[in-house]
Amino acid sequence: WLRRPTVNTLQSEDREFKSLWDRLFLLSSLKPLHNRQQHHRKKLPSASSFSNISISKMATVLTLPITVPALPKSYVAPAASSSSRLSPPHPTGHRTLLPVGPAHLNYLRLALHHKHDFESFDAYLEAERVAKEKLLGAENGAEDDLGVGEEEEADELLSLDPKEWKKQDHYAVLGLSKFRYLATADQIKIAHRKKVLKHHPDKKASTETPSSILGIQNTNDDAFFKCIQKAHEVLTNAEKRRQFDSVDPAFIEAEEDLTTITEKEFKAKKLDFFKTFKPIFELYKRFSRVQPVPGLGALDATKEEVEGFYDFWYNFDSWRSFEWLDKEVNEGSDSRDDKRYTEKKNKSERARRKKEDIAKLRGLVDLTLSLDPRIKLIKQQEKEAREAKKAATNGKPAKKTKAQEEEEKKKKAEEEKQKEEAEKAARAEAKKAKAAAANAAKKARRQQRAVEDGA
Predict the structure, then answer these.
(1) What are 337's strand-pairing partners?
(2) 266-295 per-residue burial string, b: 16 or more CB within 10 A, e: under 16
(3) Rounded Cα–Cα distance for residues 321 and 240 (Å)
(4) Who has the most CB within 10 Å: 36, 79, 143, 317?
(5) How far is CA 219 from each of CA 199, 204, 237, rounded to the nearest angstrom?
(6) In percent, how much of the chain has pLDDT > 90?
(7) Residue 404 in contact with residue 380, Cβ under 8 Å?
(8) C-alpha to C-alpha distance for 58 and 115, rounded to whole angstroms
(9) Cross-referenced Pfam families, in alphabetical order (predicted)?
(10) Helix, strand, or coil here: 88?
(11) Between 218 and 368, the higher pLDDT residue
């Protein structure tokens, strides 16, 4: 019986013949039984003895009938390559250079499509690069985050207490500070998913993060994750989001900076009217139930545009409310009287804040109207129109308005300028004619002298 040696019996240099042993063992197992009994006591050859066995005996060699064709008679062996990298000179002494390659294509785009304007061409290349990146991202399965991006998380934000969720900035928690009330439902969804993937307790449990409150290592600190969930709950609920947007901390801060202007301060500092008041109305227009909201406009706005602006803001219909600032009923209190008292107090505070908000906005509109330079221009134009109408009724020549006087002055100045240019051109022509006549007379005298000398 042929026994197969174990791997340990083989030397390290003979391990490559292990597969050959496997084949021999398989062949020996197929022999008749009497052959096995006859040779079972024979000593097996060592693995090194198989090194002389030709592998060709174990496979059939095939010879393919391939004949290499003879070289053509016109073939000339190439000369040995020189050490120089330069090609030999052209037989005719010159070569034809063809404009090809990406550099030439860029030059054609610059010349034909952008009229040698490098700024326009750079903008085109940048747009092309962005488009390629988007295409590559789409091919790789990348998701468009609708501009949400990644917002830096300050230590103060990460240390928020979920119990005081009403005091937190929900837009900042989700990384939507640059969008705020303009953030769409899809952007809120994407921002929430990003924050969950980053701050989920299961992920933080495997990494040590310092607790900003206790100053120690805390692997199960999920306080900020609870803040994320609460922010998502508020911003995905239309009613709760409206209440939060009414007292948005970013709006409160901007309101305090912009609405403290007074008439005395405005005149003392000689501030620009439009730069001062335009941001105020841009800030408040978010609360309007009626959209679109008319803007402050410019100095050349018509009377109808100015009157429409003030009419809109004096009748401003605001959806702003102050339920977010309501006081909560004391925990553990089952008294109905306490609940009724708290609800009554909250209702009274809401009405007071709403009244103050309306009065504040009305005061800003009054201040804007009193300082608006367009109002003075409109009143002046109306006064001049009345005087002109009155003069026409009495049969007297109508008094010219200030605008008409300025137009006449401008027209008169243009006429004088044209007249002066015409006179200047006439003098230049006369001077040229005089010089030409002098040259002709001089030439005639020379010819006459030449005739006299010849005679």
Answers:
(1) none
(2) beeeeeeeeebbbebbeebbbbbeeeebbe
(3) 11
(4) 36
(5) 12, 6, 32
(6) 33
(7) no
(8) 75
(9) DnaJ, ZUO1-like_ZHD
(10) coil
(11) 368
